[in-house]
Design goal:
Keywords: Coiled coil. With 182 residues, the chain is mainly α. It has three helices and no strands. Helix 1 packs across helix 2 and helix 2 runs antiparallel to helix 3.
């Protein structure tokens, strides 16, 4: 168990020494991390834009619900007017029949509009749910990526600190060697 720990420590030290000895590689890793963070910021901005679009679509869906309620009320009003006219239809039966035919055509048209609106609302709800599910999945992916970037950043911070310590130790040893030579 101990030898495995020492082996991983040696691997970490070897990696740190590589970073210390190759500042370009260290800078490249740091630039890669910053680039990944910028990409994460862009992805989060895109997600916020999609959320705003989703809110706008939800508002439009609410307006369509209001239109449907209005149409249902109109249908109910038309049906009540039809019943009243039938009760009063003793002397003007021919006129009432013509009006009934006209009202029936209007009711059928309103029913068709209501059915079309219901289908449109159902499709819009389905699309909104799919978009919300997609956004949730994307946000989860972004959170995982952010966690990975945070881990990388922590490793780089530790590596940088170790590199600075190694450089100080190296300078101290070099100074000691110089004093021995002198």
């Amino acid at each position: 168990m101990m030898s495995g720990s020492r082996g991983s420590e040696a691997g970490v030290l070897e990696g740190l020494m590589t970073l210390v000895s190759d500042p370009a590689a260290f800078s490249a890793k740091l630039a890669e991390l910053k680039d990944a963070q910028a990409q994460l910021g862009e992805a989060r901005a895109a997600l916020a834009e999609q959320r705003a679009e989703l809110d706008a679509r939800a508002e439009a869906l609410s307006r369509k619900d209001d239109e449907l309620c209005k149409l249902v009320t109109e249908i109910g009003d038309a049906e009540r007017a039809l019943v009243e006219r039938e009760k009063a239809a003793t002397k003007r039966e021919a006129d009432i029949d013509a009006k009934l035919a006209k009202l029936e055509a209007g009711r059928v048209e309103r029913d068709a509009k209501a059915a079309a609106l219901k289908a449109e609302i159902a499709a819009e709800r389905k699309a909104l749910k799919q978009t919300a599910d997609m956004n949730a999945a994307m946000e989860n992916g972004l959170n995982v990526r952010a966690a990975m970037l945070d881990e990388r950043e922590a490793v780089l911070v530790v590596a940088e600190a170790a590199a600075k310590t190694a450089a100080k130790d190296y300078k101290a040893k070099l100074k000691a060697l110089k004093s021995l030579v002198a």
